[in-house]
């Protein structure tokens, strides 16, 4: 299995594809430009099995409808943001001059940390609130990578000035859930370059001195 990073949408949010040898994939955070993403999937002859959202801010959900309708696949989202897909005020799009709303709610609501098995894929779901109340991170032990959404970036952290954000909660999530992963774990952030747990432990100025 391996990952592919695809920046999409007005904020160039990182969408990720987790691929297996059978040309199946999981889609994480399809943030926009649905036609571009569908074209890529067709070109690579990939068969998506599900859409998994790290959270429901508008820049992470813009292509949900396009992909879900095209492939008839389920959308996974934490229950704390169940209403956000359908509400431009909750998902933040109205604040930035957009009107992003999905046509239907998520198909699968995550209500606890758990192991997800979708086809041949196995993921650990960690609740990592702080950037938003329903933020989750998806860890693939097989690929030694965690899809962290906007919780942790290369030498930075997610903003906490949006609805439901909490700075101390965010730092706690990072320390308790992400920095406890093996140091060689790749961190796949919602924006910017891929980093690693080791790099963030050593170089992230926001994490030093927190306990």
From TrEMBL:
Ranges in a coiled coil: none
Pfam family, one: Lactamase_B
Keywords: Hydrolase, Metal-binding, Zinc
Top-level taxonomic group: Bacteria
SUPFAM superfamilies per UniProt: Metallo-hydrolase/oxidoreductase
Required cofactor(s): Zn(2+)
Record keyword Transcription regulation present: no
InterPro entries, A to Z: MBL_Glyoxalase_II, Metallo-B-lactamas, RibonucZ/Hydroxyglut_hydro
Keyword Ubl conjugation: no
Domain Metallo-beta-lactamase per the UniProt entry, residue ranges: 12-191
This protein's name: Glyoxylase-like metal-dependent hydrolase (Beta-lactamase superfamily II)
Protein source organism: Bacillus chungangensis
